[in-house]
Amino acid sequence: MAALALFTFASGVSARPAEARTVRIVAFGDSLTAGYGLPASAAFPARLEAALKAKGLDVSVENAGVSGETASQGLARLDWSIGEGTDAVIVELGANDMLRGLNPAATRTALSEIVRRLKTRGITVLLAGMRAAPNLGRPYQETFDAIFPELAAAEGVLLYPFFLDGVAGERTLVQPDGLHPNAEGVRRIVAGILPKAEELVGQVQDKGR
């Protein structure tokens, strides 16, 4: 009888589903992530967190954006910006490299090291791509634009091809400087990247099963 009770108890314990936990995401980038010119509640990380929660996902999205930052500067602060317990990182860097006309090889090297370091820590990565402005010339544009899909393929990480897709060049979706998204522009960015962000959360959850 006692053995039967013990078996029943053990079976009940093993049958209980694993407790759900909050998936911790860090949005790591420049002013496009930081929310330049916007209140914190309208910045990309806050809006993405709200959109993921509306999908029924238990997540937190931390804002680790620094305005004006290049990929190399992001690499320099990576280790202390991404805290212990981080499950996933959205890497959004490269726009300032392009605006300053920096050598795409340096951008590629920095982004590659960022992704590799995150993977070494067991952190799931979503790489947000950037595209060069046409006025920089076709050779620069082609070399720069290729960084993101090639890096994502080489490292086996998720890719959202163009962070400003549907926003860049749209006057109603950017601030007066013509570069940074306004609140409606951020909503458009979030709507575009949301399926990839859901996939990112799914990959984290699959690791824990």
Folded structure, characterized:
It is a single chain. This protein has 209 residues and is of the alpha/beta class. The chain is globular, with a radius of gyration of 20 Å. It has a 5-stranded parallel β-sheet with strand order 2-1-3-4-5, with helices on both faces. It starts with a helix and ends with a helix. It is built from 9 helices and 5 strands. The protein has helices at residues 2-15, 31-34, 44-54, 71-81, 95-99, 104-120, 138-145, 147-155, 183-207, and strands at residues 23-29, 59-65, 88-92, 124-128, 158-160. Helix 3 (44-54) packs across helix 9, helix 4 (71-81) packs parallel to helix 6 and helix 6 packs parallel to helix 8. Mean pLDDT is 92; it is low at 1-18. The longest helix has 25 residues, at 183-207.
Tags for this model:
alpha/beta; single chain; 209 residues; globular; 9 helices; disordered N terminus
